[in-house]
Amino acid sequence: MPTYEYQCPQCKFRFEIKLKFSDNNSPVFCTRCGAKAERLFSPVPIIFKGSGFYVTDNRREEKEAPGKGKARTGNKGESEGDSR
């Protein structure tokens, strides 16, 4: 059975309930104050297994970022005195 997370809009209490898929649309009430609770979205954890998911697997060499490295000043082949 899946576990769903709910929050009460009145007392802001958060709680989890296991429900059958057939009970998914039935209303759930707060376990503290009895008000109708709202279901929260909870992202599912993802686990990657196998090769290709680690930082060291199939890693390309990092390219030099633009702006880093040797600075260019002026155009190649022209000096400050040349103005044609």
UniProtKB/TrEMBL annotation:
Residues 58-67, 75-84 have a biased composition (Basic and acidic residues). Residues 1-42 form the Putative regulatory protein FmdB zinc ribbon domain. Residues 58-84 are annotated as: Disordered. InterPro entries: Regulatory_FmdB_Zinc_ribbon (IPR013429). NCBIfam families: CxxC_CxxC_SSSS. This is Putative regulatory protein FmdB zinc ribbon domain-containing protein. It comes from marine sediment metagenome.
